[in-house]
Structure formats: C-alpha cells, structure tokens
Amino acid sequence: MKTSSRDHPSRDQGRVRIVAVEGDVDLSSSGELRRVLFEALRGVSRLAVNLGGIRYLDSSGIATLIEVLKESQKTKTEFALFAMSPAVHEVFRLTHVIKIFQVYETEEQAVGGAGA
Amino acid sequence: MQASGSRSGVRFKAEWRLPSDPAFLPVVRGGVERLCAVFGWNESEARSLTLAIDEALTNVIRHAYHSRPDGVIEVTCEEKEDALEFVVCDVGEAPDPTRICARARESQAAGGMGTHIIRDVMDVVEYKQSGRTNQLVMTKRLKSIGGS
User: Fold this and answer.
1) Nearest CA-CA partner of B58 in B97, B28, B15, B103
2) Inter-chain contact B62–A27, Cβ cutoff 8 Å?
3) What backbone phi and psi angles, to 5 degrees, belong to B50?
4) The domain containing residue A61 runs over which residues?
5) Which of residues 14-73 of B touch A (CB under 8 A)?
6) How far apart are CA B136 and CA B148, in angstroms?
7) Rounded CA gap, B110 and A69, in Å?
8) Residue B34 to residue B50: CA distance in whole angstroms
9) What is the chain B residue with the closest CA to A96?
10) Is A25 contained in some domain?
11) Which of A46, A52, A44 lies closest to A9 in space, CA to CA?
12) Domain membership flag for residue A5
C-alpha cells in the first residue's frame, strides 16, 4: 500500500504520521494528494500534514483537505495541518473554511495536538 | 495617475488559447502573476488575482468540458482606462446560473468555492453568452499611483 509519493513524502513518529505536501496543488494534482492522504489515514491515530512546501494552492486543494478531514472523522483519526505560509493561509481565508481544521504553527505542536 | 503596463500610452493586451488540460494552468498563472506585479498590485493581491483566474479556468475545465482535455479555452487580458479586464471564453456546456455561488459561504462542503473566490477578488463579474460561446468577464480596477 502506497502511503507516500515523490511529491508528498511521509514518515511515522509513533502513532502519528507526518506527510509533507510539496509543489503546486491544483486541479491536475489534487486527486493524487487525495489518494496519498486517504491512504495516510490508515493505521495511525493522528495525521499531521505539513503545508510548508506548497508553492501554489487552489480551491481543489482545499476541497481535498475537507474530504480528508471528513474521512478522518469517520475513521476517528485526528487530522492536523501545520506550517501554513501566508500565501496558503490566504487561500484558506478566501474559502472561509479555516475554522473547521486543527491548524498549528509547528510540527511539534501538530504532532502533540497542543498550542493551537 | 493610473498604473500602466507600458507607461507609454500603449495599452496592454494579451491573449492565450489553450486546451482544457490542467497541465496548462501554471502557464496562465505565471503570466497573470507577473502581469499583476507590473500593474502595481502587491504580492498578496497578485496571488489573489491569479487564484481567481485559475479558478475560472478550473471551472471551465470541470464544468463546461467535464474534464475532457480537448476543449478550447481563450483568455484575454486587456488594460482598460482604469481597470484590467479578463475574459475567459469556452464553447462547452453553458453554466447553470442557479448553481453559480450556490454554495453557502460558511459551508463545509468540498465544492463550489471557486465562484465565491472570483466574486470576492474581482470588482465586477459577469457571465455572458454569445451563440455557443460562454464568456466570463472579470474586471479589477487598477491601483492608483500616489492615490487610494
């Protein structure tokens, strides 16, 4: 089972999986991101997604993260985002969805679930 | 005084003709972002404008051409007296007016965010039809230099 990809490397830290999203997330790549993050939810208690490597994000990327959030609620897996750049934060602001996510500044906070 | 691309009195105009293939989206994004910088918008404003154009193209690919890559999209960007006008044309399925911005703003639904972004970023947004051609006309007022 492939839980990582060239563009979105992942590693496990205990029961927490950390996935780094990198590059452009748009219509041509959001489907692959969805596949990687859905797979990454399996077998862990918490998924922490590093958004710091995103160069460009559109609403299809936001839609993907909403789908992953909903899937995480079904599988009772914690889902956290961290390292959001100002550019990525702006897209969340424009789409009015930031409140539904657990958002942290650092990996340490996202892994531990503290200091939101 | 308005910002001008050329500062010579010659107004800017650019046209792209591209297939409805998402692989071409970064090409248009790159051009629009650089253009916005030339016209005086700051980085954040340029990113928002670029996102709005990208969302318009994405909607055409997904909804007008149903993700087929062989549709034709024409994008025109033209400097007007006090604004930059972007026109996106396609000959795919016409948009359903009842579904444009139908998503509630604070909804947690995964789709329908693009049209809200376009309306939030642009000053004027108009959907038009001419024969088989669907047109989305988006206008953003230019920033005044030394003004508000």
Assistant:
1) B28
2) yes
3) -60, -45
4) 10-112
5) 22-23, 25-26, 29, 44, 47-48, 51, 54-55, 58, 61-62
6) 28
7) 10
8) 9
9) B106
10) yes
11) A52
12) no
In this structure, what is the dihedral angle of CA atoms B35, B41, B43, B44, given to the nearest 10 degrees?
-120
Asked if B110 is an interface residue toward chain A (Cβ–Cβ < 8 A), one would say: yes
Structural domain includes residue A68: yes
Sequence-separated contacts (24+) of A103-111 with Cβ below 8 Å: A104/A48, A104/A80, A106/A82, A107/A18, A107/A48, A107/A50, A107/A82, A107/A83, A109/A82, A110/A18, A110/A48, A110/A50, A110/A80, A110/A81, A110/A82, A111/A13, A111/A16, A111/A18, A111/A46, A111/A48, A111/A80
ipTM above 0.90, yes or no: no
Residues 77-96 on A with a CB inside 8 Å of B are 86-87, 90-91, 94-96
pLDDT 10s per residue in chain B (148 long)? 445 555 678 999 999 999 999 999 999 999 999 999 999 999 999 999 999 999 999 999 999 999 999 999 999 999 999 999 999 999 999 987 777 666 666 666 666 789 999 999 999 999 999 999 999 999 999 987 544 4
Q: In terms of CATH, what superfamily is B13-141?
A: Histidine kinase-like ATPase, C-terminal domain (3.30.565.10)
φ/ψ of B111, rounded to 5, equals: -120, 175
Most distant CA atoms of chain B, gap in Å = 48
Substitution target from B50, B51, B66 for chain A, most A beta carbons within 10 A: B51
The alpha carbon of residue B78 and the mean position of all alpha carbons in its chain are separated, in whole angstroms, by 11
pTM of the model: 0.88
Compute the distance between CA of residue A68 and CA of residue B4 in angstroms, rounded to an integer. Answer: 44
Helices (H), A1-116: 30-40, 59-74, 86-95, 107-112
